[in-house]
Amino acid sequence: MPHGAPSTPGNPAARQLSLAFGLIADTLEWPHDAYQAFIARLLAVGVCPLAITLGDVLAAYYATGDANGSAPSTDDKAVH
Hints:
Mean pLDDT: 80
Order of helices and strands: HHH
Structural class: mainly alpha
Low-confidence stretches: 76-80
Radius of gyration: 14 Å
Helix content: 40-55%
Largest sheet: none
Number of helices: 3
C-alpha cells in the first residue's frame, strides 16, 4: 500500500464504518464518569439497545465530548 493511502481504499461507506467503530473503541479509554455519561446518553435514546443506530452512537459520542470540552480520553485524542 502506498504511503498515505487510506486504510480502506475506494469505499467511502467502509471508511465511515471504520471511523465509527474506531470512535466507539476510543470510549474504552475514557475516564469512568465520561464513559457513564456516554452510556446514559445511549440509554436516553429510548429504544432497545439492539435498535440503536450508529448515528445514535456518534451523536452520544460527540455530545459527551462536547460536554467535556473535547474527547474525554486521558490521552488527548481529538474528537472532531
